[in-house]
Specification:
Number of helices: 1
Shape: globular
Radius of gyration: 30 Å
Oligomer: single chain
Order of helices and strands: HEEEEEEEEEE
Distance between the termini: 79 Å
Strand order of the largest sheet: 1-4-5-6-7-8-9-10
Number of strands: 10
Structural class: mainly beta
Largest sheet: 8 strands, antiparallel, barrel
Helix content: 10-25%
Length: about 190
C-alpha cells in the first residue's frame, strides 16, 4: 500500500509540475527582438537644402467666394480672403529655370492655403508631397519678405519632423516669369 501511495504521489507531482511549467512557459516572454518601427523614418538625403516652387496655380478667393486669378489681383482688395494653390512643382535649388524643373530636378508638389489679414499679412499653411511619398507640413506668416515658418509635422522621411523653414519670395525682375518661393530646409530635423 505504501508503494502504491508513493506512485500516486509521484505521478500527481510530475503531472502537476508539467502543467505548471507549461503554463509558465506560455506567459513568460522570450528574449526581445528588435522590430522595424511601423512607418519608420526614411533617409531624406535626396532632398537638397534649397528647394523652390513656382507659383503657377495660385488663386485668390474673396470673402464672398469670388475667385481672382493670381495675375488678375492688381488693384483689388486682397484682404480678408484666402490664397489657395495645389500641385505647384517643387524644384531642386533656389529659383531654377522653369524649364529645368523636370526629371530629377522635379522633387514633388506643393499645396496650401494662406488667409489674408487687413494688414495684408498672410497666415500660410503649406505642405510638400515629395516623389517618394514623404509629406512635410509647415506654417508661418507670409509677408512677402524672407521669414521663418514652423514645421508642424510630416510623414515618410519627415516623420516627427520639427524645426523651421526659411521662406523667401522672389518676383518681378528677379525671376524669369511669375513668382517663385525658395525654401531653406537646413533647419528641419
Amino acid at each position: 500500500m505504501k508503494l502504491q501511495g508513493l506512485r500516486v504521489f509521484l505521478a500527481t507531482t510530475v503531472f502537476t509540475t508539467s502543467a505548471v511549467f507549461a503554463e509558465v512557459s506560455k506567459t513568460t516572454k522570450g528574449p526581445k527582438t528588435k522590430k522595424a518601427a511601423k512607418g519608420s523614418k526614411q533617409d531624406c538625403a535626396f532632398i537638397p537644402r534649397f528647394v523652390s516652387e513656382p507659383s503657377d496655380t495660385d488663386k485668390y478667393y474673396l470673402p464672398d467666394g469670388t475667385m481672382i486669378e493670381d495675375d488678375d489681383g492688381e488693384g483689388a482688395s486682397m484682404t480678408g480672403g484666402k490664397w489657395v494653390w495645389e500641385n505647384n512643382d517643387i524644384c531642386s535649388g533656389a529659383i531654377p529655370d522653369k524649364d529645368a524643373c523636370s526629371g530629377t530636378n522635379l522633387l514633388g508638389k506643393a499645396s496650401g492655403t494662406c488667409t489674408t489679414f487687413p494688414s495684408n499679412d498672410c497666415d500660410s499653411i503649406d505642405y510638400f508631397k515629395f516623389n517618394d511619398g514623404s509629406l512635410l507640413y509647415f506654417r508661418g506668416m507670409d509677408e512677402g519678405k524672407p521669414g521663418p515658418s514652423v514645421v508642424i509635422g510630416g510623414t515618410g522621411c519627415y516623420k516627427n519632423a520639427k524645426g523651421t523653414i526659411n521662406t523667401e519670395l522672389s518676383e518681378g525682375d528677379e525671376v524669369e516669369a511669375g513668382a517663385w518661393y525658395t525654401y531653406d530646409l537646413s533647419k528641419v530635423m
